[in-house]
Write a structure and sequence with these properties.
By secondary structure, the protein is mainly alpha-helical. It has two domains: 111 residues, no CATH class; 135 residues, no CATH class.
């Protein structure tokens, strides 16, 4: 089973189980016709689909889901119960002459259905190129988001330098005075007193500088966290792969793939 078929199969297994699970619970008013399509069986059904080329029959049914949506669910239900042998799961439409579109539908390659179920970088890139960057409104939102991040970073550097410069002039003068005093030929007691005063002023200035820089960094950190939260919300709202992924499809290296996708997006947006 290739990656495209895997995406199609996994998505539809999740969809069918999500559709039937509530109806299979005790007390459900409307009972499901497929009692084995429950979340508890999901991992086992996926395993069975990957064994003995069971996916071939299921993909055939999915390619003609207009005709065989219920039959596809029946196939999963029977597969979980070990009842597939001898049953009719003919994945061909009822009539080969029904329409030319039905014929084309049965022979075409499965397509990526929902970005919530994309778990590899190649398909994520393809989805973004075909569904996000081709949409002017979505592209503009992403560009604005990227600019907000860059502007915050640039402003942080500039404002931090201004704070440092405000103190550095006085600090440099005090350091120069201390160095000069150490070289002057004054009485030991007078020199020591002056030196202590200058050194205390220098320490106070350096402390004030550090305090202001820390407060500034804290404010920028707050703004950065707020922007990150807004960014995550927007990426999820735009239905970006890896950021709006279904809970059951999350995996250990997801964060790395999210970081990769951000860099991919930046490169794509900079070229537009």
């Amino acid at each position: 089973m290739n990656d495209t078929e895997k995406e199609l199969v996994n998505y539809n297994i999740y969809k069918y189980i999500d559709k039937n699970d509530g109806r299979n619970r005790p007390g459900a008013i409307v009972k499901s016709k497929f009692p084995r399509l429950i979340k508890r069986n999901q991992s086992h059904i996926i395993k069975l689909i990957n064994e003995n080329k069971n996916h071939v029959k299921f993909v055939g049914l999915l390619n003609n889901r207009d005709y065989f949506d219920k039959k596809a669910q029946q196939y999963l239900n029977d597969l979980e119960g070990g009842d597939v042998n001898g049953n009719n799961y003919d994945e061909r439409p009822p009539s080969s002459s029904s329409s030319s579109s039905s014929s084309a539908n049965s022979s075409r390659e499965p397509t990526l259905i929902d970005p919530r179920f994309i778990t590899n970088r190649y398909h994520a890139e393809q989805y973004i190129k075909n569904n996000i960057l081709s949409n002017a409104n979505k592209t503009n939102k992403l560009k604005q988001l990227m600019n907000d991040h860059f502007n915050l970073s640039d402003q942080w550097v500039k404002d931090r330098e201004l704070i440092s410069e405000k103190y550095n002039h006085d600090i440099n003068n005090l350091q120069s005075d201390i160095e000069s005093l150490n070289n002057e030929d004054e009485t030991r007691k007078l020199a020591t007193t002056k030196l202590q005063i200058l050194e205390q002023k220098l320490q106070d200035l350096e402390t004030s500088k550090l305090d202001e820089l820390n407060k500034f960094d804290e404010s920028v950190s707050f703004k950065s966290k707020k922007l990150s939260y807004e960014s995550s919300s927007l990426l999820k709202e735009l239905n970006l792969p890896f950021f709006n992924i279904a809970q059951v499809y999350k995996y250990p290296t997801l964060v790395k793939d999210q970081e990769y996708l951000i860099q991919f997006l930046i490169k794509q947006l900079q070229n537009r």
